[in-house]
Amino acid sequence: MAKRRSYRVLVVGGDGRAHALYKACEMSPLAGEVLCTPGNGGIRTMKRRDVGVMDFVGLVALCANEAIDIVVVSPEAPLCGDGTMGIVDYFKEHAPGVMVFGPSAGAARLEGSKRFCKQLCVENLILTARYDEVTATEQIERVLATHGVPTVVKEDGLAGGKGVTVAMTVEDARAAAIRGIVKGPVIMEDVVTGREVSFICLSDGKDVLPLRPARDYKRAFDNDKGPNTGGMGCYSPLPEYPEDGPVYAQLLTMANAVADGIAVEDFPFVGLLYVGAMVDREGTPWLLEVNCRGGDPETEVLLNGFKGDFFEYIVACCEGTLADMPTPQFAGASACVVVASEGYPEKPAPHGLISQDWLAHMAARGVEVFHAGTTEIAEGVKPTGGRVLVLCANAATHEEARHKIYDALNSIPHPFPGAWWRTDIAKGAAQLALDL
Fold first, then answer.
1. How many CA atoms lie within 13 A of 431 on its CB side?
2. pLDDT in tens, 232-276
3. Sequence spans of domains, the chain
4. Would you tell me the crossing angle of helices 114-123 and 105-112 to the nearest 10 degrees?
5. Does the domain formed by 331-436 have CATH 1.10.10.350?
6. 202: Cβ contacts below 8 Å, ≥ 6 apart
7. What confidence tens digit (pLDDT) does each residue in 46-67 have?
8. Element at 145 (helix H, strand E)
9. CA–CA distance from 172 to each of 63, 132, 247, 345 (Å)?
10. Is CATH 3.30.470.20 correct for 113-129+192-327?
11. Which CATH architecture has domain 130-190?
């Protein structure tokens, strides 16, 4: 088990995932005090600091001033850094006494570079879709002739979860590739059909410990219509893929292969390792993507259902003692729904204030609210982003969990002007009564 002492903790980030990590740390008896920078409107003012996630010099100074023992990083940008120096690398050089929960920039290339991730899959015999790398417009027609349509076009670098286009026509594929090449290399790959799975694990650089699988809803509108988003909701676990079944075993093998592959590159992975896979009709998982942090909103739904002290696992990852930790346990079935601002994802136009009565109503209904895109001003808390709030609930079944959220949403006016959400999250999910 992790060493038991009082840690001073700094969570870096201001999204819904950061809010969930902050709450998980704050609930731990191991955490003496938990701060967050820059935080959001859901975190108490006295616990927030105003240092940007990419201001590594300022973050090191903040940790020195606040006597921070451990930094928990939420967003991918500071982890990836410039590809060679990220927040973990900077702290290792300038504040070696502070532990950082997250991978080095070298390991974070798994998310920061789609082509690097693809190359690692090929080198380590990890099943992934056939692909081509495109660096010039004159290559596009040749690749399209090889792959046909539909085809998936991926921007190589970080894109906030929105750099992927599933093109159904040659015209759309060509346009997406041309847009992407302006920013850098583009990956064009075959479409793999099936059921998508988010398989998130803890890793200490030596061992991998899985959390339970989740399913994310990327499309903006009901019935999986509309453009891709950062995620409009999710549910967990996936009863069709039980822990003692063959698909789960293959997913765990895939996650271990990714972790082993990046370790061979001399960049052992520490933190939350996200493996996104598509399970085809034969029950075979194909790797779609790897993220260097927990998914969003998957992290919110997983931490809301986590039984026990998640911060203890964070410490174990940083100290390299994950093998000593018990298998993570969860309460019942979990679901979450994202409340978005008007115009999201193309042109978010957040405005107005978030109703405090609405927040109190959610709490009274047993719905946990994580702030994803909010800030506090003199008049109250206002929405500032495209994805504004993440509503989570646990129950014995997915149907009960989703109804808990939607019944609460439908029994009170919207939380702020222009707020909207999908109405089909976890609808039709396989049902299995789980212990709360």
1. 9
2. 999 999 999 999 999 999 999 999 999 999 999 999 999 999 999
3. 7-102, 113-129+192-327, 130-190, 331-436
4. 100
5. no
6. 208, 209, 210, 211, 271, 272, 273, 313, 316, 317, 322, 328
7. 999 999 999 999 999 999 999 9
8. helix 140-147
9. 47, 17, 33, 18
10. yes
11. 2-Layer Sandwich (3.30)
Q: Which residues fall within 8 angstroms of residue 287, CB to CB, at 6 or more apart?
A: 121, 126, 127, 128, 254, 258, 275, 276, 277
| Tokens at 382, concatenated | 């206002």
Q: Is the pLDDT of residue 2 over 70?
A: no
Tell me if 148 sits within 8 A of 209, measured CB to CB: no
CB atoms within 10 A of CB 27: 14
Please determine, for residue 171, whether its predicted confidence score (pLDDT) is greater than 60: yes
Look up residue 211 and give its two tokens: 């959390």
Please tell me whether the overall predicted TM-score, pTM, comes out greater than 0.70 for this model. Answer: yes
Instruction: Describe the crossing of helices 114-123 and 246-264 by its angle, rounded to 10 degrees.
Output: 100
> Average per-residue pLDDT in the chain?
95
CATH class of 7-102: alpha beta
Dig out the tokens for 394 from the structure.
């646990």
**Six-digit token string for 239:** 């009863």
CB proximity list for 74: less than 8 A, separation 6 or greater: 11, 12, 13, 15, 17, 18, 21, 293
